[in-house]
Specification:
3 domains, alpha+beta, elongated, single chain, Gyrase A, domain 2, Multidrug efflux transporter AcrB transmembrane fold
C-alpha cells in the first residue's frame, strides 16, 4: 500500500474507533470507570422536562423605583433644610409631600427642577395653611423602567439557569411581559421554580437598638423603622422559629455591587456559609458603612428575610462579607447562585406550567429513528440498484457518516431534538447528493472512453468545486440559524452543521480512499457504475 493510502487508512480507522467509543456510552451504561461517559443529550421534546411561562410584574418594578426616588427625595430635602410634615408613597406609584409652611413649596420645586427631572407634578393643594403636592414618574421614565425590568429579568433568569446546570435550556421573551423557560430533564421542579422566581433583593440595614423590639412587635413601630424576621430552622425539632428584628428602613447598600458569591464551609462547625465580594463602588460603600457604625449590628436582608445581623467589630475595607445562617449545602448553593446572577428587578409569577412526560419523548425518539431507518434504507437500495458497486461504496460512506455525526454530538455534548433529527435526515440527503455528483461526473468521463483511473481522478476533480459551493452555502445558512434562531431552530442548526462537515469528509475523502485502494490492489478494466 502506498504511503499516502496508509495515512488515509489510519485516519479513517482512528475516526471510526473513537466514534464507536463515544457512541458506546449512549448505548450502554455498563462500561469501565475510565471509559468516556459523554452521552448524546436529549432536548425537552425527546427526554421530557418542564415548560414554564412567566409574567414579569412590571408594575412592581415601577413601585420599587418610586420607593427609591422617595428615599432620595427625603435625603435631599433634609440636606437642604426643607422641612416637610409628610413624604410617603401613595397609590403605589405616586409620592405625596406635605408642608406645614407653604413657604417651603418654592424651595421644594427648585429641588425638583434641579435634581429630580423624571418626577412631574400631578396635583397641588392648599388647605388651612398646609400645602401638598402629588408627584409621579414621567410616562417616558415608566416605559423605560418596565422595558428594563423585562430585559434584565430575562438576563437574570438565564444566568441563574446556566449556573443551575441545565443542559440546553430555552429562555426567551414571549409577548410584551412574558418569558418562556424550557428546562430539559429537570426532575426537581419545585427547586428550579424557587430559584427562577426568587427576587433576590439583597439589602444591608442597621438594627435599631435604641427602641424595644417587644413594643415594635406589638404594633408600636418607631417612625423610619420596620420589623423583619429571621427564619431559624430547628432540624432536631423539625420546626421553623421566626426571630424578629427592628431595623432602620433606610437601605445602606444593595446587592447590585456584588461581583461574586461562593459557598464556604465553616472549619469549626462544618456548616456552609456564603461569602460575597464587592465591586469598587461596593468596596467604598462597605468601607464607609462599617467605619461609621462600629459596635452596631448590620442586618443582611434578602427578599425581606433577615439572614444574619452580626456586630461590626471594626472597619472592613477588604471588599468582602459573608452570610451565615441555618443553611443546608443545597440552600447555600442556591443562595450563591442568585447573588452571583443578580436580583430580579421585579417579581415574576407563573401563568403556565406544563410537564412533558418521558413517554412522549420515547415516542418521538422512536418515530425519529424509524424515519432515519426508512429513509436510509430507501436511499441505500436506490444507490445499489442505480450505481451498482459504486453505489455500495457510497453506501459505506453513508453509514460511516451517520456513525460520525452521532459520535460528534456525544463528544461535543450537543443536544438532540426533533428538529435535530430532521437535520440529520437532511444531512443524509446532502451526503448522498455529493456522492451522486461525483458518480455522475465519473460516468461522463467513462462515456468519453477514459480509463477507470482517469475517470475517477477527473470526476472527483470536477465535482469538488460544486460540492464545496453547496456545503459552504448550507454551512452559512446553518450558522445564521444558530445565531438568530431559538432553541428548536438551534438544535436543527447544530446537527446540520456537524453533518455538513462530516458528509464532506465521507463523500470526498473516504470514498476516494476506497477507489484508490481497489485500483492499487487490482487491475480494474471496467468500473461497476
Amino acid at each position: 500500500m502506498p504511503g499516502n493510502l496508509k495515512w488515509k487508512a489510519l485516519l479513517i480507522v482512528i475516526f471510526t474507533i473513537v466514534s464507536l467509543v463515544y457512541l458506546s456510552a449512549s448505548i450502554s451504561d455498563q462500561l469501565p470507570g475510565w471509559w468516556p461517559k459523554k452521552k448524546i443529550k436529549l432536548g425537552l421534546d425527546l427526554q421530557g422536562g418542564t415548560h414554564l411561562l412567566l409574567e414579569v410584574e412590571t408594575s412592581k418594578a415601577v413601585e420599587n423605583a418610586v420607593e427609591r426616588v422617595s428615599g432620595d427625595l427625603k435625603d435631599s430635602l433634609l440636606k437642604k433644610g426643607i422641612r416637610y410634615s409628610k413624604l410617603e408613597r401613595v397609590n403605589g406609584k405616586e409620592i405625596l409631600v406635605e408642608f406645614q409652611n407653604s413657604a417651603y413649596m418654592d424651595k421644594f420645586k427648585g429641588v425638583l427642577d434641579s435634581e429630580f427631572f423624571n418626577l412631574k407634578e400631578l396635583a397641588t393643594k392648599d388647605y388651612n395653611g398646609i400645602s401638598s403636592v402629588r408627584l409621579g414618574l414621567s410616562g417616558k421614565e415608566v416605559e423605560h423602567i418596565e422595558k428594563f425590568a423585562i430585559d434584565q429579568g430575562l438576563e437574570t433568569i438565564r444566568n441563574r439557569i446556566d449556573q443551575f446546570g441545565v443542559s440546553e435550556p430555552i429562555i426567551q421573551r414571549e409577548g410584551e411581559k412574558n418569558i418562556l423557560v424550557q428546562l430539559p430533564g429537570i426532575k426537581d421542579i419545585k427547586r428550579a421554580k424557587a430559584l427562577i422566581g426568587k427576587t433576590a433583593l439583597l439589602e444591608f440595614k442597621l438594627v435599631d437598638e435604641e427602641h424595644s423590639i417587644e413594643d415594635a412587635s406589638g404594633g408600636r413601630i418607631p417612625p423610619g423603622d420596620e420589623v423583619l424576621y429571621q427564619k431559624i430552622v430547628s432540624r432536631e425539632a423539625e420546626r421553623v422559629v421566626n426571630k424578629p428584628y427592628l431595623l432602620k428602613e433606610k437601605t445602606l447598600m444593595t446587592g447590585d455591587v456584588i461581583t461574586n458569591a461562593k459557598v464556604r464551609i465553616d472549619s469549626q462547625y462544618q456548616t456552609p456559609y456564603v461569602t460575597m465580594e464587592f465591586d469598587n463602588r461596593g468596596k467604598r460603600l462597605f468601607d464607609r458603612i462599617t467605619a461609621a457604625n462600629v459596635n452596631k449590628r448590620l442586618a443582611i436582608v434578602l427578599d425581606k428575610n433577615v439572614y444574619s445581623a452580626p456586630v461590626i467589630q471594626e472597619r472592613i475595607s477588604g471588599g468582602s462579607a459573608q452570610i451565615t445562617g441555618s443553611f443546608t449545602a443545597e440552600e447555600a448553593h442556591d443562595l450563591a447562585i442568585v447573588l452571583r446572577a443578580g436580583s430580579l428587578p421585579a417579581p415574576v409569577k407563573y401563568i403556565e406550567e406544563r410537564t412533558v412526560g418521558p413517554s412522549l419523548g420515547r415516542d418521538s425518539i422512536h418515530s425519529g429513528i424509524v424515519s432515519i431507518i426508512i429513509g436510509g434504507t430507501v436511499v441505500i437500495l436506490f444507490m445499489m440498484f442505480y450505481y451498482k458497486l459504486s453505489g455500495v461504496v457510497a453506501n459505506m460512506a453513508l453509514v460511516l457518516n451517520i456513525i460520525l455525526i452521532m459520535a460528534a454530538m456525544a463528544a461535543f455534548q450537543a443536544t438532540l431534538t426533533l428538529p435535530g433529527i430532521a437535520g440529520i435526515v437532511l444531512t443524509i440527503g446532502m451526503a448522498v447528493d455529493a456522492n451522486i455528483l461525483i458518480l455522475e461526473r465519473i460516468r461522463e468521463e467513462l462515456l468519453l472512453g477514459k480509463t477507470p483511473r482517469s475517470a475517477i481522478d477527473v470526476g472527483y476533480e470536477r465535482a469538488f468545486l460544486t460540492i464545496i459551493d453547496t456545503h459552504v452555502t448550507t454551512l452559512v445558512t446553518a450558522a445564521l440559524l444558530f445565531q438568530f434562531g431559538t432553541g428548536p431552530v438551534k438544535g436543527f442548526a447544530v446537527t446540520l452543521t456537524i453533518g455538513i462537515i462530516i458528509s464532506f469528509f465521507t463523500a470526498v475523502f473516504v470514498t476516494r480512499f476506497i477507489y484508490d485502494l481497489v485500483l492499487t490492489k487490482r487491475r480494474v478494466r471496467t468500473l461497476s457504475i
